[in-house]
């Protein structure tokens, strides 16, 4: 009977240690580290910068399209005047 209690007690102790180790590991993995928060902050900054650059590019494209239209109109006027 004593051997049975010793074996069962050993299994219980090993199981408790395994469960505690698992809990500690999961809590350590779920906590964001300083590197992760810094990476998230720099990712947000880069995302904002990309949006600003995309807006600038769209503005420049619209100005270029407007200039192309004005040049085409001027060319047409010059051709009509030359004839």
Poorly predicted residue ranges: none
State the domain count. Answer: 2
Shape: rod-shaped
Distance between the termini: 119 Å
User: How many β-strands, per DSSP?
Assistant: 0
State the major sheet: none
**What pattern of helices and strands is seen along the backbone?**
HH
Structure class:
mainly alpha
Number of helical regions: 2
> Per DSSP, what share of the residues sits in E-state strands of 2 or more residues?
under 5%
Give the C-alpha Rg.
35 Å
- How confident is the prediction overall: mean pLDDT? 89
Helix content: over 70%
Description of the structure:
With 83 residues, the chain is an all-alpha fold. The chain folds into two domains: 1-31; 37-83. Helices cover 94% and strands 0% of the residues. It has two helices and no strands. The chain is rod-shaped and about 120 Å long. The relative contact order is 0.04. The model has no long low-confidence stretch (mean pLDDT 89).
Task: Write a brief structural summary.
With 83 residues, the chain is mainly α. The protein has 2 helices and no strands.
Q: What are the SSEs and their pairings?
A:
Layout (H helix, E strand, L loop, with lengths): L1 H29 L3 H49 L1
